[in-house]
Amino acid sequence: MIKNKIADDKLDTLVSKSVVPIIDLAHCGKTVVNRVGQQLHKAFTEKGIAFLVNHGIADEKIKGVWDQFDNFLDLPAEIQDRYRRKNGVNYGYVSPGIERFDGKTPELRHTYNICKLDDQNLPREPLPEFADEITNLTNDFKTISSFLLKAMEVALEVPPGLFAENHSQMLEGDDVNMTTLRMIYYPAIVDDEPGQSEGAIRCGAHVDYGTFTLLSQDSEGGLEVQLPGSEKWQRVGHLPGAILINGGELLSIWTKQRYHALPHRVVIPEQEQIRTRGRHSIAYFVHPDNKTPIDPQDIQKDEASSSNEKIYTAYELIQKKFNDTYGQRS
């Protein structure tokens, strides 16, 4: 155990090099909105990524949800099948090898998307504690997100409520808002099982589609990013207890690319002590309400911009991304 910990510490990561900004959310209130907004603004314009600490979500609460997802994965296949994601919707369970960002490379992960806190999205009947614990945690992520949206309004000097009011339907269903809580489990890679990881990846290279993403992970597991201005993939590393935040493509469009949408992927780690253990993470993808027009003029007035330039809604832009990635909504 000590040997493995030392090996992990020696990984060359953005965390080990202190490259990722750290934003302290302690005592989140009106007195710190401006400070957090400015720090987030600096992080999104320079790095596209940051760590949030003192965010108020206990480690035990997050671990409890990971344990509940493990319980779901232990259910018989016929019960899991009731909650599999169907074509045309964004919620439900997806088993390893189904999602392929490049259309061909299998992705070795279990995922479960939740877009609304109801019985259709949550397996309440077989696992009542699953539904209760996830509802609790999801509301915490929603609270943090609402605070961050207000902080961005201050930093960007936009009218109060521009972001908050256009994200008012988070977790009310993907028919009105695409905000999604995703539970993820990356199985251990056992090298003596032929072909298990050959030609595969944990998550293919992509940028997130929405406003921003909050990510909690239980260990270092192969998350890599391309920082702004670089095509080099760099391992992020793990900061225990912190929540990672990265900007999404809609926010980048909204800010005329002042805020970066960071390309990222999750590779199968080459280190045996990492690849041979499973890894949990939870991603909270924050999206504007579907009907929200994503107009850069809302944030940065530009007289040179053409008034005839077509403005798309958040829903239209997201559907275009789904079509580009999957060929259809998936």
From TrEMBL:
EC number: 1.14.11.-
Keyword Membrane (UniProt): no
Domain Fe2OG dioxygenase: 177-288
UniProt KW keywords: Iron, Metal-binding, Oxidoreductase
GO molecular function, one term: metal ion binding
Pfam family, one: 2OG-FeII_Oxy
Broadest EC class assigned to this enzyme: oxidoreductase
Coiled-coil regions listed in the entry: none
Top-level taxon in the UniProt lineage: Eukaryota
UniProt KW 4Fe-4S keyword: no
InterPro entries, per the entry: DIOX_N, IPNS-like_FE2OG_OXY, IPNS-like_sf, Iron_ascorbate_oxido_reductase, Oxoglu/Fe-dep_dioxygenase_dom
Family: Belongs to the iron/ascorbate-dependent oxidoreductase family.
Protein name in UniProt: Uncharacterized protein, isoform A
Species of origin: Drosophila ananassae
